Amino acid sequence: MISALTLYELNNIVSEVISSVMSEEYWVEAEISELRVVHGHCYMELVQKAEDTKTPVARSSAKCWRTYWTLVRTAFERVTGRELCAGMKVMMRVHADFHEAYGFSWIVTDINPEYTLGDIARRRREIIAQLKEEGVLELQKELVLPLFTQRVAVISSDNAAGYDDFCNQLHGNDKGLAFSVKLFRAVMQGEATESSVIGALDAIYSQVDKFDVVVIIRGGGATSDLSGFDTLSLAENVANFPLPIIVGIGHNRDESVLDIVANQSVKTPTAAATFLVDRLSAVAARVDSVASYVSKYALDRIERENSRMKYLSTVLPSLYAAVKSREMSRITQLRDSLYVAVRQTTADAKAALDAMPMRLAGAVRQNLTAERHRLEMLGQRTAAVDPQRMLSRGYSITLHDGRAVTAASALREGDTLETLLADGRVISKVDRISKNKR
What domain range includes position 402? Predict the structure, then answer.
C-alpha cells in the first residue's frame, strides 16, 4: 500500500528546506504590479518584464509587515518625494518565507529609494527624448496667452482644498479683476490620473472656443505622488493641446514631465492663480496707460482744432468772396462753351439727317440688285436638278414605296417597283436580286 503525506506535512517539509537552504536575505530588482495596505501590512505583487516585449517573465508575491512597513515607507517618501505605487520599479531586500497555509512569498525588510530615483529619472529622460523626437516638446511654449486671459478651464478634483485656494485667490484679488472659472473634474492621484486628466482635456477640447487657458492643479491629493503626471500619453496630449496650459501640481522638490511640456509651470494652485492675476493686472495697467494717453491726445487735438476754427472764422468771409468770384467766372465760361458745343452738334446732326434719304435710296437699290441676281442663280440651280429634265435626257428613276432605290440591298424578292420614264411609268416586281461583284 502506498504511503502518502498530507498537504500540511509536505508544505512543512518545503518550509524547512527553504528555511535551511535560503536563510539569507537578498537584494532583488522588480516592478510592483499591485500594492495594497491592510491593517498596516503591505501586500505586493512583483513582476519582471522582458525588455523587448514587456511581457512578464517572472511573478511573485511579497509582504512587508507593519513593523518594517512604517519605517520603509517613511524613508522611501523622504528621499524620493513619492509614494510607493503600482508600476514603480524598486530594489528591495527580501528573505524567503513559505507558510504551510498561505504558500510562498518574499518578506520585505528594506527598499532602496536611490534605485527608484534612478529609474524615475531614466523613464523621464526616455519620455522627454520621445517628445523631442516627435517634435512636440516645445509646442506649448510657442503658444501665447491672450492679453485678456479671463476664461479659465480648471482640471482638478472637485473636493480639493487646492481648488478652493485657487478660486479664492483668483476671485478675491485686490485689483477687482473678473475671471470666469469652470471645473473639469479629474482624479489627481494614483493609477487613474493619466486617463482621468486626458478625459478632462478631451471635454475642454469639445468646447475650446469658450476658454482662454487651461489650469491643471492638485489640491487634496498626496503631494508626494507625481507618477500619474510622468506618462508619455498625458505629456503628448498636453503638448498638442491648442490652448496654453498652466500646471500647478503642488510639488516643491521635483518637476514632472507635465511641468516640462506645459506653457507655464508653477508650484501650487495659489501660485497659478497669482500668475493669472498678475498677468491680467499688468494688462489692465497697460490699458489704463493707453487710455490716459488717448485722453490727453484727444484734449490736445480738440484744443488745436478750436484754435484752427477760430482762425478760419476770421479768414473764411474773404476767402469765400474770392472763391465765389472765381467760380462764377468759371461757370460763365462753361456756359458759353456749352452753348457753342450744342449749336455745333445740332448743325452736324441736321446735316447728317439731310443726307440720309439719298444714302438710304442708294443702299436699297444696291440690295435689290444683289437679291435679284441671287434669285436668278437659285432658279438656274433648281432647273439643273429638276428630275423631269433628267428623264428627258434618257434617264429613269426607280421608286419603291415612293422612295428612290439607290441600293439593291434595300430590296426583297417580290417587292413592287415603279419606274419613271420621260413619257410614262412602268410597274414591275422583283423576281431576283443579283449584286455586283468587285
Answer: 389-429
